[in-house]
């Protein structure tokens, strides 16, 4: 029953965001446009997302989102985290030892909402042609990961970037601590408490990307696989 309620809650959030996107496209020849999901800044979108999530938690108490409503209300937004998509072709072909050099330009941000030493949830926003839009108002997995990583540093607002690797589904956290870049991942059984060097991370994901390409490259070219 708890799993069913959780699924229904996720569906509710999805319908909510889809509704916002649909309404943002409505208008009368460009006049009186409804702008529920168009914001001038990512901060504005995050504030709206937080308010909407609080409202959902208060009015739909039967849904279990694993979020403490009181902690959410107390929470404060930290510096947004840039999310970068690694270019799979560059990963395969390049000999670069820097993740940034094989990543696309970031158009997505994730803002942690923090209460004391816990990341309560993460709100995702992205750039569009009119500014910023709200994409996700809850991400428990990312919140848990960030709580574990940030808890290892005295500064909960330690700068972090996220690199997402398509096809092999790897997520890499880059932490800039005291001028040093540390890399964390749960990929292939990795530990978020055991940092790796950038070279180690790249060697691992490049090897797996090459294996993936050999096994599924033809299907990928034909569009039979989703990146």
Q: Would you mind describing this structure in some detail?
A:
By secondary structure, the protein is of the alpha+beta class. The chain is 39% helix and 22% strand. It contains six helices and eight strands. The model is unreliable at 4-8 and 22-35 (pLDDT under 50). The chain has helices at residues 2-24, 42-59, 69-74, 88-93, 140-150, 198-221, and strands at 76-77, 81-85, 108-115, 118-128, 131-136, 160-165, 170-177, 180-184. The longest helix has 24 residues, at 198-221. Strands 1, 2, 3, 4, 5, 6, 7 and 8 form an eight-stranded mixed β-sheet that branches. The two termini are 32 Å apart.
Terminal residue distance: 32 Å
β-strand number: 8
Name the structural class: alpha+beta
Order of helices and strands: HHHEEHEEEHEEEH
What is the share of helical residues?
25-40%
Describe the global form. Answer: globular
Supply the key terms:
single chain; 227 residues; alpha+beta; eight-stranded mixed sheet; 6 helices; globular
